[in-house]
């Protein structure tokens, strides 16, 4: 029998990144990026923002769902004089050569004191959360303030996602995966008056916090037990679920999809333990109440789409199979839209500008699909398949009534889930053989996402400041339209914050990798110090 060594290797105790520091740093960086987008985007240049903003303005003044007007298709909400609206505000839409200087501001004399909003029956929670600043400010200042509040709310959920992700030892790839929560199209929607943004943010927090909670219930691997308490994780899961389920009419379905995929990823043992633990039912009760409220509001409030006319959308009246096939054929276009079709789908970037983002995505997803064990690869395949099939199934079901109304941004809660699950799987035990690549590829990947983000910010701003027909230098030499603080000031600030985000994310990855390597080395040392089993020698 081999004797134990009198000198043992020093023990290295892993201490997770200070979760409070992670939360506040992530919040500050994301809130700043979202605020910069909210200032850079002209009023109502974000998809459907005029409809959402006017609903919020009217709702906080007591007009919850508007009223019907003969000859007008959608419900009409009344607007105060300081928010009178004219379509001239968005004269530049679908005219990329035109700047945002249209000569009419929200609240100017001659505008309409009402708006026929197609979102009047939407769930009211989001609109109460963002609409209250318009009681204090008028005109464009009120819209900018609503955008900033929306961005701050979204940033809370992204900060929770980072906090949950970095609360365990095995998290070396997650700074890379979570960098996609700072992708320009995502942050662009955060800094707008549109529930699509908070839907994505809440889903991002739910994806990673629920995976961590389930790992907590599993408990077999100390390397993935969160330093956050089970109660804290339940708080994040509960709030994120309620916000996701109430953001839009499809929220209950999105919640089922995300929860189901997380259950599939972690396995039956963790799910069984969750449902057999009595303390779980408080959080489940709150989530169920939020889901029930959302469903009842949708059914009674009429926010399910009515029968569309043939001129409203393609494929109205088509069969399930026709709608499903149509969306599958358009899936590459939806991916393209989700990466960077800004404005009302009227401000796409040129092909080469997407390459850094596509490269970063390809690195992470390819590693997760090829470098892990069989079960992890199957999990990755299921999540990726859901990102393709869920939109097609939903549209196939409703196509006879609504026609094809899907846009790439609607699938961002799923696309972000693909990158988060990929990073989560790579950070686990099955990713040990790829661990040596984590820090260098995280630096590369996060940098690619940040470079693409800065480029997108500059190009979208240029489109509104001087139009796409003018040279870049015209932006600082002779701009036609200027956002608050000035275009080039916003670009410089965005570049600075993007750099800070890269440095911080890279530091998180390095710290996590070192701690993980140290813990694995300690485990190997302890294992090698164990006595060898005694064997008998058989003499012939």
Please give the radius of gyration in angstroms: 25 Å
How much helix, percentage-wise, in residues? 55-70%
The main pleated sheet reads as:
2 strands, antiparallel
Report the uncertain regions.
Answer: 1-15, 535-540
The outline comes out as: globular
Q: Which strand order spans the largest sheet, edge to edge or round the barrel?
A: 1-2
The ordered H/E elements are HHEEHHHHHHHHHHEEHHHHHH
End-to-end CA span: 22 Å
Query: Average pLDDT value?
Result: 90
Number of helices: 18
Q: How many E strands?
A: 4
Structural class assignment: mainly alpha
Proportion of residues in extended strands = under 5%
Describe the structure.
It is a single chain. With 540 residues, this protein is mainly alpha-helical. 60% of the residues lie in helices and 2% in strands. The chain is built from 18 helices and four strands. It has a two-stranded antiparallel sheet with strand order 1-2. A two-stranded antiparallel ribbon has the order 3-4. Strand 3 and strand 4 form a beta hairpin. Helix 9 runs antiparallel to helix 14, helix 12 packs across helix 14 and helix 13 crosses helix 14. The two termini are 22 Å apart.
């Amino acid at each position: 029998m081999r004797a134990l060594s009198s000198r043992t290797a020093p023990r290295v105790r892993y201490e997770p990144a200070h979760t409070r520091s992670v939360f506040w740093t992530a919040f500050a960086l994301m809130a700043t990026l979202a605020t910069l987008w909210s200032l850079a985007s002209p009023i109502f240049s974000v998809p459907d923002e005029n409809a959402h903003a006017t609903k919020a303005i009217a709702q906080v003044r007591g007009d919850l769902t508007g009223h019907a007007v003969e000859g007008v298709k959608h419900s009409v909400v009344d607007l105060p004089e300081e928010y009178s609206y004219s379509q001239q505000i968005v004269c530049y839409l679908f005219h990329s050569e035109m700047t945002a200087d249209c000569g009419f501001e929200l609240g100017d004399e001659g505008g309409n004191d009402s708006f026929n909003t197609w979102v009047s029956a939407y769930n009211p929670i989001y609109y109460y959360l963002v609409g209250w600043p318009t009681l204090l400010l008028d005109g464009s200042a009120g819209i900018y303030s609503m955008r900033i509040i929306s961005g701050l709310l979204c940033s809370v959920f992204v900060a929770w996602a980072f906090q949950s992700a970095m609360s365990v030892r095995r998290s070396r790839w997650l700074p890379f995966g979570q960098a996609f929560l700072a992708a320009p199209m995502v942050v662009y929607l955060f800094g707008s008056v549109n529930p699509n943004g908070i839907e994505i943010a809440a889903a991002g927090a739910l994806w990673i916090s629920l995976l961590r909670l389930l790992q907590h219930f599993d408990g077999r691997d100390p390397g993935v037990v969160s330093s956050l308490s089970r109660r804290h994780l339940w708080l994040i899961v509960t709030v994120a679920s309620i916000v996701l389920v109430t953001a839009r009419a499809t929220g209950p379905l999105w919640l089922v999809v995300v929860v189901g995929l997380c259950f599939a990823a972690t396995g039956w043992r963790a799910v069984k333990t969750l449902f057999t633990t009595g303390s779980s039912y408080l959080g489940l009760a709150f989530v169920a109440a939020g889901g029930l409220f959302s469903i009842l509001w949708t059914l009674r409030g009429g926010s399910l789409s009515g029968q569309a006319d043939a001129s409203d959308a393609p494929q109205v009246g088509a069969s399930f199979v026709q709608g499903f096939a149509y969306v599958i054929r358009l899936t590459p276009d939806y991916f393209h839209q989700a990466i960077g079709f800004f404005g009302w789908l009227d401000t796409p970037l040129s092909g080469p500008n997407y390459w850094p983002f596509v490269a970063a995505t390809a690195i992470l997803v390819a590693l997760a699909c090829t470098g892990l064990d069989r079960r992890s690869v199957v999990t990755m395949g299921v999540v990726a398949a859901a990102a393709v099939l869920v939109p097609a199934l939903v549209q196939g079901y409703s196509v006879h009534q609504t026609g094809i109304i899907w846009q790439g941004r609607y699938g961002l809660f799923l696309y972000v889930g693909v990158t988060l699950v990929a990073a989560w799987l790579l950070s686990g035990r099955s990713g040990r053989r790829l661990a040596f690549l984590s820090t260098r590829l995280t630096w590369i990947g996060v940098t690619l996402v940040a470079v693409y983000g800065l480029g997108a910010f500059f190009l979208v701003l240029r489109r509104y400041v001087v139009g796409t027909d003018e040279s870049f230098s015209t932006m600082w030499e002779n701009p036609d339209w200027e956002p608050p603080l000035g275009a080039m000031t916003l670009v410089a600030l965005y570049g600075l914050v993007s750099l800070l985000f890269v440095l911080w994310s890279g530091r998180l990855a390095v710290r996590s990798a070192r701690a993980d390597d140290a813990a694995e080395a300690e485990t190997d040392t302890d294992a090698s110090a164990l006595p060898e089993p005694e064997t008998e020698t058989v003499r012939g």
